[in-house]
Amino acid sequence: MLKRLKGLDDLALFGAAPRFDRPLHVGSPNVGNLQRFTERLEAAFERNVLTNDGPLVQELEKRMATVLEVKHCVAVCNATVGLEIAMRALRLSGEVIVPSFTFVAAPHAVQWLGLTPVFAEIDEKTHTLDPAAVEPLITSRTSAILGVHLWGRGCDVERLRAVASRFNLHLLFDASHALACSCGGKMIGGFGDAEVFSLHATKFIHSFEGGVIATNDSAVAERLHHLRNFGFSDFDETADVGTNGKMSEVSAAMGITSLESMTEIIRINKRHYELYRRELGSVQGLRFVEYQGEQFNYQHVVIEVDSEVCGLQRDMLRDTLWAENVLARRYFYPGCHRMEPYRTIRPLPTGTLPVTERVSERVLSLPTGTRISASDVKGVSEIIGLAVREAPTLVKRLQRNEVGVAHDE
Q1: CATH of domain 8-30+261-328+367-399
Q2: What does the alpha-carbon distance between residue 340 and residue 359 come to, in Å, rounded to a whole number?
Q3: Structural domain boundaries of the chain?
Q4: How far apart are CA 159 and CA 104, in angstroms?
Q5: 73 near 214, Cβ under 8 Å?
Q6: What top-level class would CATH report for the domain 34-260?
Q7: What angle (nearest 5°) sits at the alpha carbon of residue 155, between those of residues 153 and 157?
Q8: Given Cys at both, which of 62, 142, 217, 406 links 319, Cβ 3.0 to 4.6 Å?
Q9: Rounded to an integer, what distance in angstroms lies between the CA atom of residue 374 and that of residue 392?
Q10: Mapping DSSP to helix (H, G, I), strand (E, B) and coil, where does residue 91 land?
């Protein structure tokens, strides 16, 4: 049974034992039915087919296409390579407009291909790419817009479509957070020229490492298949310069098994999200990323910490949690435009992306998933509640350097 917190001296920051004897992660892997996974592995070994577009990869692609309600899904070794292959399939050149408030893999994929990521502002309420900020950045070198469906909430797809259409640009989406989520009543996956989903082990549905590219364009799908397999179009013929982006049968076996547990995992995620909301709803200065009006996977429980209201900086709250073995994450600090190599090769004047910088200094993602319990959620919430309630004293004690702070993640 978890200890009760009576005051600041009960916090690990000030010498007490950590509240949790094991780390609580934001993205701890969910594991489905291990027996079914093992059966699929045994069948793969019996067939002696472990890669090269095997039957398990093909089955995963079909199942994902059904979930995403798209014509084509192409499985790849990971979503970063998926983004690169998708951009190659669309034959992009020059500049690609991308939000700075995202995981660095998105601009890295653009840069890796020799293209130029142009960082755009986000909407402060949704945290997704602001269509109004995109148009002023379009030049004669712009070839595409890369939107990111963040926290499972869709971009303003229709407005981005309108901008892309008006300037004859390709439109694609990083949908790493958005498996089994909808936007405007339609499943995310069929918007734009292509959408790329992550099946990394930290995602709620995973294939150890992996990703899926979804599209309704048959010509694009054909190029994706070629490009992920060295450019081969036939047994001895190549159609393009490709790479090795194939998914293995082992990863596909995990992906299929994980998909079979999707409904239950979403149910648990939603339960945790709603419990956090109940436990922390009255804590001043905290604003939850909300999920309303669409279908969601509840993979992320995200709060914004308003230091002016609660009296506590986001990083102080993060350090307090880390000391208790609660490994909350500050996504996506400090914004890609302030990370290397971009801050050196294409420095932006301070304040160019004020919303991105403001949000990146407020956001904190809390642990969830099948590996934590309702009791864990209540324990995390109690730590946060105490820290905010005692914020003036907590800040003074930290500023007097009475304690160290947690290492950055």
Answers
A1: 3.90.1150.10
A2: 19
A3: 8-30+261-328+367-399, 34-260
A4: 24
A5: yes
A6: alpha beta
A7: 130
A8: 406
A9: 29
A10: coil
Which two tokens mark 406?
């947690």
Structure tokens at 207: 């294939």
Residue 33: count other Cβ atoms within 10 Å of its Cβ.
Answer: 12
Helices (H), 189-324: 218-227, 249-260, 262-280, 307-310, 314-323
The whole-angstrom separation of Cα 131 and Cα 157 is: 9
Q: Are strands 170-174 and 116-120 parallel, antiparallel or unpaired?
A: unpaired
Residue where the block lists tokens 């079909």? 62
CA dihedral 59, 60, 66, 72 (to 10 degrees): -90
Number of H-type helices and E-type strands within the chain: 15, 16
Judging by DSSP bridges, how do beta strands 95-99 and 194-198 pair with one another?
unpaired
Distance CA 389, CA 385 (A): 6
Tokens encoding 193: 């020229």
CB atoms within 10 A of CB 187: 20
What Cα–Cα distance (Å) separates residue 283 from each residue in 275, 344, 387, 406?
Answer: 14, 40, 10, 23
CA distance 40 to 206: 16
Q: What angle do CA 181, 151, 366 make, to 5 degrees?
A: 125
Please tell me the distance from the alpha carbon of residue 310 to that of residue 313, in angstroms, as a whole number.
8
Q: How far is CA 34 from CA 26, 252, 256, 260, in A?
A: 22, 14, 12, 11
Distance, CA of 262 to CA of 197 (rounded, Å): 15
Query: Along the 409 residues of the chain, how does pLDDT read in single tens digits?
Result: 567 899 999 999 999 999 999 999 998 899 899 999 999 999 999 999 999 999 999 999 999 999 999 999 999 999 999 999 999 999 999 999 999 999 999 999 999 999 999 999 999 999 999 999 999 999 999 999 999 999 999 999 999 999 999 999 999 999 999 999 999 999 999 999 999 999 999 999 999 999 999 999 999 999 999 999 999 998 889 989 999 999 999 999 999 999 999 999 999 999 999 999 999 999 999 999 999 999 999 999 999 999 999 999 999 999 999 999 999 999 999 999 999 999 999 999 888 999 999 999 999 999 999 999 999 999 999 999 999 999 999 999 988 865 554 444 4
